Amino acid sequence: MGKEGNKVEEVATDEVTDPDEVLIDYGDDAWERLVLPVGRVMGICTMALETGLARSMLINLFQGRSSPQAATRALVTGVVASWVGSKLSTCPGRDQL
Fold first, then answer.
1. Per-position DSSP letters for 29-87, written without gaps between them
2. How far apart are CA 20 and CA 78, in angstroms?
3. Domain positions in the chain
4. Taking a C-beta distance cutoff of 8 angstroms, is the pair 51, 80 a contact?
């Protein structure tokens, strides 16, 4: 989240009192930087089997053509986290991580 720089004076003089007028939400960085790339590595077929979601929906999701609802986002994030955990559990030297 960031502050809109050109509203500093208005905030200081109490002309603007609603935070939504001056704050910009940049979205969830973790979804775009972690979940989506790992999901792409997993592959659409694996993701479809693990989530029960339609392949076409997953393709649109991972290509950035659609935004998931909260429940879908949580489901995909959980599957990605489990998949990463399973890969780490078979990693040699995992005790040193």
1. HHIIIIIHHHHHHH-HHHHHHHH---HHHHHHHHTTS----HHHHHHHHHHHHHHHHHH
2. 30
3. 28-88
4. no
Q: How many CB atoms lie within 10 A of CB 51?
A: 17
Per the CB < 8 A criterion, the answer to whether 48 and 94 are in contact is no
pLDDT 10s digits, 5-41? 556 666 666 666 666 665 555 555 788 899 999 999 9
Q: How far is residue 36's CA from residue 30's CA, in Å, rounded to a whole number?
A: 9
Q: Once rounded to an integer, what is the mean pLDDT over residues 54-66?
A: 93
| Stretch 68-92: mean pLDDT | 89
* pTM beyond 0.85: no
Q: Which two tokens stand for residue 33?
A: 């930087």
Which amino acid is it at 94? R
